[in-house]
Design goal:
single chain; 213 residues; alpha/beta; 8-stranded parallel sheet; 42% helix; binds pyridoxal-5'-phosphate
């Protein structure tokens, strides 16, 4: 867990217009509470079951905002809609259609980022660019979702230059689609992501250290 001074140093190096998401998966609620005490309001989780007890332990922190960043299974959609303000990892047309339908039933309007896969990567899901463009009119007609941006994760095999190119491509695609947010950059590449036009960086280990859960 980083100190307040180290946290301030990171915050000071993040430009205006870029928001910090603290990815707390694998860490206990006390660590989240500590970072909240530093002034951090946005937290990311990647598993619904892990997040629920932690959220309950923190329900006195009424300014906290929760972001879902993990692979979202169909059968978890209702739970995620109920528990989270943002979903960064919407990776298919059928999934966003389901989110729209269930959001209506739950009378919610989650903020949605579409995960895009701009390079071949067997480890990762996401819309291929051509599929996203083809489905675009269907996607924007969906109710009860607030489409705010794109999210991407570079393949592990890329070097720094290749990652920067990928981040710029994600930014260009978001601009083309008139979406403000680009959620990209993690502990090892967040500075490149900011240069490439990120508006959300997602930091886990840099803030919390090694995972504990
Ligand atoms: C775990 C995770 C992060 C944070 O990763 P670090 O390398 O620990 O900063 C960011 N985004 C997603 C989608 C994650 O699953």
């Amino acid at each position: 867990m980083i100190s307040l001074n180290e946290f301030k140093k990171i915050k000071d190096s993040i430009p205006l217009g870029v928001s910090l998401l603290a990815v707390s998966k694998g860490h206990h609620s006390e660590s989240i509470r500590k970072l909240f005490g530093y002034g951090q309001l946005d937290f990311g989780e990647s598993r619904l079951q892990e997040s629920i007890p932690k959220k309950n332990e923190l329900n006195d922190l009424n300014k906290i905002r929760w972001h879902f960043v993990g692979k979202l299974q169909k059968n978890k959609v209702r739970g995620v809609i109920k528990e989270f303000d943002f979903i960064h990892s919407v990776d298919s047309l059928s999934l966003i259609e389901r989110i729209s339908r269930i959001s209506k039933e739950e009378q919610k309007t989650p903020k949605i980022l579409l995960q895009v896969k701009l390079r071949e990567d067997p480890q990762k899901g996401g819309f291929l660019k051509q599929d996203l463009l083809k489905s675009w009119s269907q996607i924007i007609s969906l109710k009860n979702i607030h489409l705010v941006g794109l999210m991407t994760i570079p393949p592990l095999s890329l070097n720094a230059v290749q990652r920067k190119d990928l981040f710029c491509e994600c930014r260009d695609l978001a601009n083309q689609l008139e979406l403000r947010e680009c959620s990209m950059g993690m502990s090892n590449d967040w500075e490149e992501a900011i240069e490439g036009g990120a508006t959300w960086i997602r930091l886990g280990s840099l803030l919390f250290g090694k995972r504990q859960i």
